[in-house]
Every structure is written in C-alpha cells, then in structure tokens.
Amino acid sequence: MVQETKWHSWFTGNLPKGCAQCVQGRKLVLFITGKCGQSCYYCPVSEKKFGHDVVYANEWQITDPDNPTELLEEAKLTEAKGAGITGGDPLMNVNRVCDYIELLKKEFGERFHIHLYTPLQLVTEKNLSRLYEAGLDEIRFHPDIDDEKWWGRMELALKFDWAMGVEIPALPGKDVETMHLIDYISDKLDFINLNELELSDTQVSHYKLNPEEHEPKDELSYGVKGSKDMALRMARYAETKGLSAHFCTAKLKDAIQVGNRMKNRAKNVALPVDKVTEDGLLIRGVLYIEGLEPGFDYQERLINTSVDLEAKRTELIKKNLFKEHEIFIDVPKKRFIVSRRKLKRYAKELKRIWYVPAITEEQPTSQSLELEIDYL
C-alpha cells in the first residue's frame, strides 16, 4: 500500500536511510562538479554550475576544493548527520569524491551516512570499488529511461555491501519506459526514488523541457502537472514487484528539506543582535556603507571597493552609536550587523555620516541573501 508521509511525500516498502535524514534537514548536499556526460533534457542545474568544475556544500561555494575547512564548517553549522553527493556526475572527479567521503567519515564518524547520485557512463567496477572502500553507504543510479545501453552497469554494484537504488524524475507520458526500468531493477536493487518533475526557474541553455508540453500544476509551484499522478502509479507498480518506492515532491524539497536545514543553520549562525524567525530566517539590523547597499552591480561594487571595516567599526563605537557587543562586521558583504534598537534610534545621524541603515530579513546561508530590505 502506498502511504503518505508527514513530509508531503509517498512511499511503499522501506524508506531509504538517505531520504529519512534528508527530510529532517540533516543531509549536507555536496555538489562535487558540474561536469557530466549525460545530457538529460530536464536537467535544472544552474549555468554557474553546469559544465564547471565547482564544489558547493549546500548553498556555499567552496573556495578551494582541496581545502576542506568550509565543507566541514557547513556540515557543523547545519548539524548534518550525513551527506548526499551529487552533480553533474560526481564520478567525473572520483578522486575528489573519495577524498571527501573519507574526510567526512573521519571527522564525524562511521555513522555519518553518505549516499551518491550518478548516471551510468562512468560506473565501472574500479570506480565502485573505490567508492565502497572510501566508505560510501548508499548509491543511487540515474539511468536514461529511453536508452538501455548502460543499464547493465547497475549490476556491478551487487558485488558490494551497500544500499542500492535508482532515482529519476517522474516524467508524465513515460509510464511504459519507467515500468520497464522497474521490471529490470526489481530483483537487483533495493528501491526506486521518483522526484516530482519541476520546471526550471531560470532559462538555462542545457534545459530542454518544453514548457508548452509541461505545464505547472498550479500558480504557486514549479511542479509539473501530471508528475505526481504518474509517480503514484509507478509506486503502486513497484509494490507489485516487491520494490520499495518513494515519491519526493517539490514541496518536500522546498518546505521541508531546505526549510529544516535553514532552521538548523539559523540557530548556529545567528548573532546576539539577530532575531530568528519560525521559518529559520534572520531579522537583522544592517548598516550598509553608502555606495555598497544592494542594487545594480551590487556584487561588482563589493569586489571593486576596498573598505577598512575595523576602522569604521571603531569610529562608530567611539561616537557612542554602538557598544562593542552591538556591532559585528560582515566581511563578505562589507557591512555591519547591529542592534536593531540602536539602528532605529540613530538612523538619521548614521545617514548623515554616509551610512545606509536597514532592517533585513535574510537567509542564514553563507551568502546571507536578503529576502526583504526595509530602509530606515
């Protein structure tokens, strides 16, 4: 029987351990590389990642992939109990994958659960052996349902003692092809995960999903009409074959997975002057230096402008506008996070000395993305 979970998803059989951690916001999303040899027409990877050998830990781009400091910090800030390794195709840089698996296991222990997504072109016994020896707990294959050429490579994973499954989007109109895949893996792998197909929120050159053929299911969602119904049909079919299935909705990813991860991170990055909302956002008093407030060419202005933040902070304290514990330097954005009460009190004076005071609501991520800005 296909059952609905409290996380807005459906499953039959056993829920993969990687999914159980994910819905709690306890899985670090580790993007290994944007390079990939499989051209999926529904690939939503952004232009800044697609085809580029970049590494991201959740939303945080790792400055130096050979230096694990930022990766470990993100895992700690989000209280991660495991990691999901993705791309691109992570096997395009299998050395990096294995190094990171070993690093995370060493830092957080063998119970730190790690799963990996990969298409099949680079699935070889040698690569699988390396992943297994590094400590990978679960592998999820992403086969091309329209081409069986590489399907046999999934059987190579049977030589190793780990959880194995397939993870693909639920593609409306592809019932026959998906059922054929389920038939093929039902006596070999442990599960199939079906993700709700989503429309891309950006027009990326590699994204070929035709919006005329794939409508959003409603005005508020990127989820494609018909994907959910198709996924539930496939889950019921998988059940008849004795194969566990899980249907992961867009709402689960956005509201539950990311939402819980944001809440975990917010409580660890919040400054004494911040207020954490129920949704895991930060309400902040922010003091921008005039000319470096958000707007046109914001990032370019930040990069090209040199500011002695320590000196400016000291000056503001000497003017008795803020006390030591009421003003913090935000180096990446070249701004100050300050007491909201003091900010409101001295807003006029701060503007006279070339500052831009504001109350913001922002994400607790490394980029501190401002969702709302209320200039005072």
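Second entry:
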Amino acid sequence: MTKPEKLKRIDQRIIAFMRNRRITALRVSLAIIFVWFGILKPLGLSPAEPLVLATTSWLPLLEPRAWLLVIGWWEVAIGVLFLVPSMTRLALGLLLSQLVGTFMPLFLLPEVTFQAGHLPYAPTTEGQYIIKNLLIIAAALAVGGSRARRTT
C-alpha cells in the first residue's frame, strides 16, 4: 500500500469516527455548559449574576434574585434534558425561551454589552459572552435536526 493510500484510509477512519460521535459530543457539550453555568446561579457563584439581575429587574411576578434562581434551574434542566435523546424537543423548547432572555441585554443594556461609542460592532466581555450563544444555537439545531431524521 502506498503512502497516499494509507493516508486516505486513515483519513476515512477519522471521518467515520467523527461522524459516529458528533451528535453525542454536541449533546454532552450542551449538557455540560447548561448544567455547569446554570448551577452557578443558585449557588451565588455566577459571574453573569449582575447582568441577569439588571436584565430581569423589569420583569413581573418575581424579584430579580428569584428570577436568577429560576433561570439557573431552567438551564440545569435544559442540560439534563439534552442527555436524553427522547427529550430533545423539550430541551429545544426550553432552550429557545432561555435564549430569548439571554440575548435581551444586547438590546436592554447596550452600555454594558458594547464598548462605549462602538455599538454594535465592538462587544464588551459581557457582550461576547452573549454573542457566543450563536454557537449554542447551531449545536442545538444540529442535535434537533438529527433527532427529527431518526423519528420520521
């Protein structure tokens, strides 16, 4: 076997390995992120706490600290549900509502999420933290799309 043939065979094995594990890797990644970041909120350890409190200050029904707890446990639930393939639709529904809230500071608190005088192209660390959720949306779409193919 020639060197190019060996390399092609190795490449094909690597591609097959990735193809067979990609959705599981996304599920586990989503679960880790949501459980980890979510549990920090009720424990009072989340660096996002001031941002969450400022964003929820106008919401009815609960005080901002209570909303912080709700959001934290909501995120934990999303993470756990992503680990159970049959619960993917529920996880996606909870994620959709969570992400609406996650993006709100970009609009409600631009002075916190963008550098002064550089709206909308130069986010602060907080803004970057929020914008990276676009990757979470893409991962969730991939997981949800793979589940839909299997059940139809």
